[in-house]
Amino acid sequence: MYKINKKALMFEPVLVLFVIITLSASLYNILISSGATADLGASSLRIIELDKETKSQLELIEQASLYQIYNSIIKLAENSGFNEAQLKEKCLLWDDFKLKEKCHLNKEKIRKNLKIYLQNSFNEYSKLQGLGLYNVEIKEENNKLFFTFNSPNIVFKKENVEFTINHKFTKEIEYDLNIFTDLYLKANKNFPDCEEAKQEIKINNLICKGETLILNFEYQQDKFYLGEKEKSLKYPIQPIIKFRTSRILVQN
What we know:
The structure is a single chain. This protein is an alpha+beta fold. It has one domain. It is about 45% helix and about 25% strand. The protein is built from six helices and seven strands. Strands 4-5-6-7 form a four-stranded antiparallel β-sheet. Strands 1-2-3 form a three-stranded antiparallel β-sheet. Strand 5 (about 205-210) and strand 6 (about 215-220) form a beta hairpin. The longest helix is centred in the first third of the chain and has 73 residues, at about 5-80.
């Protein structure tokens, strides 16, 4: 007859229980690991999507900056080189010596006024796109203007993913701001041909038309390129510089 080992009988259930607990723990770890992998994969996908959206949005606003530059030059020319604050101070004539300190123009002021127009209009557009404010700096070199746009700490978000970017870029155009100062200096020395004319006359690119007390001028500038000529759009409209001076010879 065989003898039953009581210790062996007790050991087998314990072993089975140990195996069940071990397998349950392993299965739990596998399930938890799969969930983490799924979350990681979803986050990676959102990072890739946000990166593409960010690049696309920044490329779009960089392209739009060229149109903002062009429109700011147009606005500067239409307002005789004055900014909006100067216009509110009634800076209307280029030879108004009563308001000379407020209305006097020079190269530095004209460049500053262009910066004011551009920075204001560009930031209005930037806010519409959900981006931050940009600072604009303008430099001149060899009849070219270089516009540097800079906005630190722009935040891009997509669900639980977030980017913070320092966006800085530069645009270049062929344009000479000296035309404003050249015309301004001539205007303060008067235009005798326009003074004596009784109707609109044209002298080179300059058109003048006299009123009783005022001479109105329009200077038609050449077309200019935004960026490199072979890669950029040449606008069909020339920015026209408009300005006025007092008329010395009052017509009867």
